[in-house]
Amino acid sequence: MSEKFDPSQADGRWQRAWDQAQCFAADSNSTRPKSFVLEMFPYPSGRIHIGHVRNYTMGDVLARYKVMTGHEVLHPMGWDAFGMPAENAAIERKVHPGEWTYQNIANMKEQLKRLGFALDWTREFATCDPEYYGHEQALFIDLFEAGLVYRKESAVNWDPVDQTVLANEQVIDGRGWRSGALVEKRKLSQWFLKITDFAQELLSGLDELKDWPDKVKLMQENWIGKSQGLQFTFSLSDGESLDVYTTRPDTIFGASFVAVAADHPVAQKVAEGNAEAQAFIEKCREGGTTAAELETAEKLGFNTGITARHPFTGQDLPLFIANFVLMDYGTGAIMAVPGHDQRDFDFATKYGLPIIRVVAANAADADKPFAGEAEAGDGVCVNSGFIDGMSVAEAKAAVIARAESEGWGEGKTVWRLRDWGVSRQRYWGTPIPFIHCGKCGVVPVPKDQLPVTLPEDVDISIPGNPLVRHPTWKHVNCPSCGGEAERETDTLDTFVDSSWYFLRFASQPADRPFDPQEVAGWMPVQQYIGGIEHAILHLLYARFWTRALKHIGQIDVAEPFASLFTQGMVTHETYKAGDGSWLSPQEVKKEGDDWIHIESGAPVTAGRVEKMSKSKKNVVDPDEIVAQYGADAVRWFMLSDSPPERDLPWSESGIEGCGRFVQRLWRLFSLYDAGASGEDEALKRKLHQAIAAVGEDIEALAFNKAVARIYELASIVDKAAPSASRSEAIATTMLLVSPMMPHLAEEAWHAAGFEGLAAQAEWPPHDPALLVEDEVTIAVQVKGKLRDTLTVSKGLAKDELESLALASEKVQRAVDGAQIRKVIVVPDRLVNLVI
RNA sequence: GCUGCUGUAGCUCAGUGGUAGAGCGCAUCCUUGGUAAGGCUGAGGUCGAGAGUUCAAUUCUCUCCAGCAGCACCA
Q: Per-residue pLDDT tens for A710-721?
């Protein structure tokens, strides 16, 4: 064995060996238990960043561990390759988006390979491969035929300069993020997926996801936003009627006014003959919608002069147009109960409207005044006619029942979730496979004509969708009547591409999207790992697609990801110069307690530890550190220190320490001696405890704990005297670190003379009998304070422990002749003398 | 405002109803043919604050404080 481990030549050598042995190609026909380990596939932006390295290292350790514990593992990798950055790059660099994308994929694949990930590259694909998106088009048509896809006029953000629709996130302060043009609301015919049909399923399905973080489930629950209440109709004084929705029908007797949104038809009608109302509506529209603005925005209203008749009391309630009522939730109109809703309370206070108590802690408090704010809590109904004395829950049911029997309202469930608009007026996406015919309407492209591919000869540098202005692409004959027709020129939201890619990883027939049998063998994904930023959209869409495909009978699994893990970010310190510009960590140094700029000597502000980003200059390039320290040290660092779900602060000393530990293990491994003899019982126990603990930690994704165990084991083995037991411990340690430091493990395994690859070796079994110590240390306390310890054999009887404790000189001194009132003996743990 | 998570050594984190731990960092010493390094030894903790339960609380319960994150005029 050489004296140092040299990653620069060992890493590549073992990576090639794994390739040649096809170690990580998944066999769908294997009889072993199957395990599908998946990390969220990357967008091919050009370079792997450190967050990818952390994400994929975690999945890799689990995948390698699963291989070693006898599983047939599917651990694939691919590319979420459609999207806007490719179009932007095309504009900036005058290259075709496809060329740019595939070049990035080639580069990033090389980077991933240098990290030694145990990936099945035979199943690699990019979502921009016509083969992949062709199957996606087929699935889209299937969903259309099942009634889960429809078209509807919908208001979109339209950038008049770039001639495109923008996502909400791309509109900043009302302007297009790139053009800076004022964004217009435009009505366009858009494609939608009926995710709302699955709202209840997606909500109740969360309960079955035992191995998902509560945080993510809660976020999805909020997003789906189920609320139950009463929708009912007010008769208005102008002869019309108005529907309102409330989740608090129990407070209906406390309603003192009615309010509609500025965009509500009732408000529009009032504005027709009333300039003042018109001006008020305009003012409402100007209001911002950010959280901060909402926090401080004053409640404003306009009294229409119309009144609404209360269904129970017959009272005439004034009807306001109010800025805090939203058109797109419920019916866009509310009954306002100032006593029990803070917004209504603020409004009523401002406009001098009655504030009536209808819920109180008990009947005696029926006329208790309000303490300056609304009371939203539970209690009993008061001042409320026939529901007086009922609990809030009883009253809700009673009011709904009465409304239904009298025919002026009904119990209703309202969802915050909206149908998913998937139309994008973009080039670099999956073409929506439909044809518009003047005679036949919207006709799906016949499946034998799929894929509908993107034309290559496009000029993307001028604004607008190149598919629209392409000379020939959109002109086709109607598949139904044969007449002249036009292709749909919208492409699909890229979230569609990532909503079913795991199925394509599991099964890749040429003639259909996937094979249901094969999918059944692999799905659901046993462990999915990715960033928390996808907690809602991607994970909800993927759950929806899976359920939709089950609904139309294509697969038999309802939830795609049995277990989800959201890993933390990699962070780094930030530094700012006096002029506010960011400095990289290489440009600064610490002098005493202050930071200074190395070049100029000027003082520098050490900023927060933040997510690595180019703009803040606190990035570390994976390639550079792999070249410097080797893949194993980098992988080890990604796993050590922080728990995987928390942020990991990058540090120079940390990676150096990891590099040293790799060498330290190498020296330890070089002590392996097949001919050593002699038993070391104590070492054996430590070894078997470590085997069990490391395995448990990896299965629980507690990688930092597994790392700590290995540090501990390495110290113990290092200090042990040579023996057959020590050699066994050294060889076993090679296997224990193999999932985390696979290159070092292979090199040592090979140098020690073992056959085969460490990556394919069996995970060392542990002997449960060796997990318990045969000697234990007993604490001896006097009045709960530790006075002495005793080392005794395990399982010693209580009375023997007691007499041993009393015999202790230190204990006698502490007792100091006092009378012992009680003795507490916990076998194998302690003796406590109470005096 | 609502919801969730986190407070243990200088830093990053394990852990436990009964003796407070690891890595890094720091200090001392040794090695100077493992050397842009290796090793020995060591210092360092009111386990966020307070109260309760208990023979015994860092651990269980409650209250509070601080930090982080998500959601939010959702009727």
A: 888 888 888 788
Pick the closest to residue A791 from A779, A809, A808, A799 (CA basis).
A779
Helix pair angle (A724-737, A681-699), 10° resolution: 10
Positions of chain A with pLDDT lower than 70, given as ranges: 1-2, 167-174, 177-178, 285-297, 573-576, 578-596, 603-618, 772-776, 784-786
DSSP 8-state class, residue A449? G
Beta bridge partners of A485: A437, A476
Hits for CB < 7 Å against strand B across A residues 8-27: none
How many Cα atoms occupy the beta-carbon half-sphere of A544 within 13 Å?
Answer: 28
Cβ A452 vs Cβ A470: under 8 Å: no
Q: For residue A823, list its beta bridge partners.
A: A833
Query: Which CA-bearing residue is nearest the C1' of B6?
Result: A646
Tokens of A385: 């006619």
Distance CA A614, CA A46 (A): 13
- Give the span between the Cα atoms of A261 and A332, in whole angstroms: 6
3-state secondary structure of A367: coil
A664 CB inside 7 Å of strand B? yes
- Burial profile A139-167: b = 16 or more Cβ within 10 angstroms, e = fewer: bbbbbbeeebbeeeebebbbbeebebbbe
Q: What is the pLDDT of residue A526?
A: 94
Q: Provide the 8-state DSSP code for A448.
A: G
Query: Cβ of A32 < 7 Å from strand B?
Result: no
Q: How many Å apart are CA A262 and CA A224, to the nearest integer?
A: 25
Can you tell me whether residue A685 is helix, strand or coil?
Answer: helix
The ipTM assigned to this model is: 0.80
Q: Is the CB of A329 under 7 A from strand B?
A: yes
A594 phi and psi angles, rounded to 5 deg: -110, 155
Closest nucleotide to A222: CA versus each C1': B71
CB distance A462 to A117 below 8 Å: no
The reply to whether A784 Cβ lies less than 7 angstroms from strand B is yes
Q: Phi/psi of residue A17, each to 5°?
A: -60, -40
Whole-number Å distance between alpha carbons of A781 and A808: 11
Nucleotides of B under 7 A from a protein CB: 3-5, 11-15, 18-25, 34-35, 37-40, 55-57, 69-75
Helix axes A631-639, A652-669, angle to 10 degrees: 110
- CA–CA separation, A538 vs A219, rounded Å? 13
* Predicted pLDDT at A642: 78
Residue A669: name the closest of A25, A8, A10 by CA.
Answer: A10
At residue A580, the pLDDT reads 65
Q: Are A479 and A487 in contact (CB under 8 A)?
A: no
Nearest residue to A521 (alpha-carbon basis) of A542, A503, A544: A503
Is there a contact between A412 and A245 (Cβ–Cβ < 8 Å)?
A: yes
A246 CB and strand B closer than 7 A = yes
Cα gap A810→A831, rounded to integer Å: 14
- Residue where the block lists tokens 């997510």: A611
Q: Phi and psi (nearest 5°) for A410?
A: -150, 155
Token pair listed for A675: 């001919």
Q: What is the pLDDT of residue A167?
A: 66
Please report the pLDDT score of residue A287 as a whole number: 55
Q: Is the CB of A218 under 7 A from strand B?
A: yes
CA dist A114 → A14, A45, A103, A612, A634 (Å): 11, 18, 17, 21, 11
CA of A568 to C1' of B44 (A): 30
Chain CA centroid to CA A545, Å? 17
Distance separating alpha carbons of residues A638 and A661, to the nearest angstrom = 14
Beta A648-649 vs A570-576: how paired, if at all?
Answer: parallel
The answer to whether the bond into A97 is cis (omega within 30° of 0) is no
